[in-house]
Each structure stands twice: as structure tokens, then as C-alpha cells.
Specification:
The chain is α/β, with parallel strands linked by helices. Helices cover 24% and strands 30% of the residues. A six-stranded mixed β-sheet has the order 4-3-2-5-6-7, with helices on both faces. The chain has a three-stranded antiparallel β-sheet with strand order 1-9-8. Helix 1 packs across helix 2 (47-56). The longest helix is centred in the first third of the chain and has 18 residues, at 14-31. The chain starts with 6 loop residues before the first strand and ends with a helix. Bound molecules: inosinic acid (IMP) and magnesium ion. Magnesium ion binds at residues 42, 45, 101.
Length: 181
């Protein structure tokens, strides 16, 4: 399949993403300069964002990953979160920064924050590239946020529809007919 054939429009360009990431990376580098930082990427969506973000920082970080699932092949959350893969190491005493691709209903992130907070990290905070506030069901406090976006289903830069389009280098809006069939 041609990667761009089902994309209706570009919502956020590669250039805009790059600029925003260097802004956030600068701030994280200041805020966590004296910390034992652990970035926790939420697989799979955050992998592209996280790999660019960590390389734009000038402080050291450790990384780990969790894989959670709430969606299946649908564009709406099922409201249920399952941990498919947990962290490798304990996080007690660590400054944990959860890295997410998009905050939508908030169900996934509020669940994750609760689960990780119970493991006694020194601090826990959330960084998301995208925020879609219009469909929020669970409140999530954000420390870093890239872009606020309207209620449209977006793909690319790590975000998928039914596991496709993750390698698109920008954030695009999927043609509605792709998922309305
Ligand atoms: P939440 O639990 O509803 O906040 O959903 C968070 C997860 O839903 C994200 O990690 C994404 O995997 C997925 N998601 C939500 N909105 C979109 C979208 O517009 N495009 C692709 N994935 C999305
Ligand atoms: Mg995700």
C-alpha cells in the first residue's frame, strides 16, 4: 500500500514536530538535570516521538517500555486497559517520565499513572506529543504537551490505524472512508 494514499491532509508537518520536540527537550533537560530520569515509553505509539525526544536532550536518561492495549482495530477506546508488557526494572526512587503519543479519553494514561505511582517512584509525570481534549473521560495531569488537536483521527509519527501508517514522518488525518467502511 502506498503510505500516503489514504491521508486526507497533513495536520502537523515534520518541521513543526521537530521544532516542538527541541522546545520540550530543552525544558526536560532543565527540569531533570539533577534527577535520576527514567523515560517510560508507551508502546507502540510513542516510539518515534521518544527516540527523537531523547536525542534532542542534553541530560542522561534511562529508558524502559510498557505495552498496553485498549483499542483493537477500532478508532474508539474500549475503555479497558490491558498490560501486554511490563517494565523490566523496579522504579522506586526514580524520576519517571511517561512518554505517550496521544492523550485522548485519558483512560490509558490515568490507568498507567496509577499503576506506576503504586510502585513508589520518586516522582511521576507525563509527556504527550498530542492532546485531544474533546473526548476526555479521565483527568490526566500533563507536564509536557506538544500539540492540542481537534477531534479527528490522526496517524503517522508512531500513531497507527489498525497497526498501519506508523512510519509516516508527519501527523496526518486519515480519510474517513478508510475507517467508516
Ligand atoms: P486514551 O486511552 O483514549 O487516551 O487513548 C490513548 C491511546 O489511543 C493512544 O495511545 C493511541 O494509541 C490511541 N489513539 C487515540 N486517539 C488516536 C488517534 O487519533 N490516532 C491514533 N491513535 C489514537
Ligand atoms: Mg498508543
Amino acid at each position: 500500500m502506498n503510505l500516503e494514499s489514504n491521508i486526507a491532509s497533513i495536520l502537523i508537518s515534520e518541521e513543526q514536530i521537530k521544532d516542538k520536540i527541541s522546545e520540550i527537550a530543552k525544558q526536560i533537560s532543565i527540569d531533570y538535570e539533577k534527577s535520576d530520569l527514567l523515560m517510560v515509553g508507551v508502546l507502540k505509539g510513542s516510539m518515534v516521538f521518544m527516540s527523537d525526544l531523547m536525542r534532542a536532550m542534553n541530560i542522561n536518561t534511562k529508558i524502559d517500555f510498557m505495552c498496553v492495549s485498549s483499542y483493537g482495530a477500532s478508532t474508539k477506546t474500549s475503555g479497558q486497559v490491558r498490560i501486554l508488557m511490563d517494565l523490566r526494572e523496579p522504579i522506586d526512587g526514580k524520576d519517571v517520565l511517561i512518554i505517550e503519543d496521544i492523550l485522548d479519553s485519558g483512560v490509558t494514561l490515568s490507568y498507567l499513572v496509577d499503576v506506576l505511582r503504586a510502585r513508589n517512584p520518586k516522582s511521576i509525570a507525563v509527556c504527550t506529543l498530542l492532546d485531544k481534549p474533546s473526548r476526555r473521560k479521565s483527568e490526566v495531569q500533563l507536564k509536557y504537551r506538544g500539540f492540542v488537536i481537534p477531534d479527528e483521527f490522526v496517524v503517522g509519527y508512531g500513531l497507527d490505524y489498525a497497526e498501519d501508517y506508523r512510519n509516516l514522518p508527519y501527523i496526518g488525518v486519515l480519510k474517513p472512508e478508510v475507517y467508516e467502511i
